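Retro notes (design track)

What went well: tokenization of the new backbones is finally stable.
What didn't: we kept losing track of which sequence belonged to which structure.
Fix going forward: every design gets posted as structure first, then sequence, in one message. First example under the new rule, 322 residues:
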């Protein structure tokens, strides 16, 4: 059994927190951490390091945060064999520096289980990371410089405390200061329970004008656009059991200019949520691919697909998609 295919997530950290730095309204956090992610990432990913963050809240609703992180990061399939050419199936441990600025305007009534209100968030990062060519470390150990940013909007409408209509919109983009694509560990991914339900994890990629997949050396993309509309309703309110129907749409590519009508993928589905202590959702979603396409480029002679994407994918998770 290839254990790398199992979904799992681990995080350990030690934080020193000063909520009133030198008697001011600024909060200072100093953290050392270790992270392992195979839940939101297609491959195993390890990161170890430290970070310092300075944050402040204005008017009880506007949260700001500046954060500097220095870490080492490694990714790949750590259970696979070495290739015939001696290439490792995972990258070496690479140093990474990141300076990040976050701002959130939050009018939600609850962080874990929002039922009304809205929030607007933005995230801007400068990243300096050692580049990797294929699965091998480059001999000259070149460091790449990148800018990443994203904006997120969440809206929740409550109808007589029985129906909750939720909307989510996300735009994420990037810029390379060295005329290269984002490194694989930083590229945006789409597909799965955290983005596009009804698709297997991280399987949505760039599409050509015919809607056929465009295959590149690196998975994912440098630009992402996605949105969700979801209606949540009580099934057995006394038992904290809720249901939902949803519609997801999204696309990603190498740049915003590369996106076109056939880039966008759509799915719809139903779900069941159990609210632990009436607040923390455990959910099962079943999404249906509304526009099934080839899993690989069609045969050039016949134009036929060798295999279509699955019609439906059941997915289990903790917390809401947004």
């Amino acid at each position: 059994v290839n254990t790398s295919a199992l979904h799992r997530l681990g995080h350990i950290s030690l934080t020193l927190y000063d909520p009133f730095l030198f008697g001011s309204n600024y909060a200072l956090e100093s953290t050392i951490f270790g992270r392992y992610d195979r839940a939101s990432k297609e491959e195993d990913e390890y990161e170890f390091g430290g970070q310092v963050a300075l944050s402040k809240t204005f008017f009880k609703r506007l949260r700001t945060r500046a954060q500097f992180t220095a870490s080492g990061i490694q990714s790949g399939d750590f259970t696979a064999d070495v290739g015939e050419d001696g290439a490792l199936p995972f990258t070496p441990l690479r140093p990474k520096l990141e300076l990040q600025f976050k701002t959130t305007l939050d009018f939600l009534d609850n962080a874990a289980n929002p039922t009304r209100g809205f929030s607007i968030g933005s995230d801007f990062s400068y990243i300096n990371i050692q580049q990797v060519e294929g699965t091998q470390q480059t001999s000259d150990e070149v460091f790449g410089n990148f800018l990443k940013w994203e904006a997120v909007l969440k809206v929740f409408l409550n109808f007589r405390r029985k129906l909750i209509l939720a909307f989510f919109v996300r735009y994420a983009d990037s810029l390379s200061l060295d005329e290269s694509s984002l490194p694989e560990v930083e590229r945006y991914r789409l597909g799965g329970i955290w983005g596009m339900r009804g698709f297997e994890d991280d399987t949505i990629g760039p599409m050509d004008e015919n809607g056929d997949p465009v295959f590149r050396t690196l998975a994912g993309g440098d630009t992402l656009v996605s949105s969700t509309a979801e209606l949540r309703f009580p099934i057995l309110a006394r038992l904290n059991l809720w249901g939902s129907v949803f519609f997801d749409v999204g696309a990603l590519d190498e740049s915003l200019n590369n996106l076109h009508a056939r880039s966008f993928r759509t799915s719809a589905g139903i779900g069941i949520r159990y609210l632990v202590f009436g607040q923390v959702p455990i959910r099962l979603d079943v999404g249906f691919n509304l526009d099934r396409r080839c899993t690989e480029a069609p045969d050039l002679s016949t134009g036929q697909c060798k295999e279509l994407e699955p019609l439906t994918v059941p997915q289990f998770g903790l917390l809401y998609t947004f």
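Added context from the reviewer: The first strand starts at residue 9 and ends at 18.
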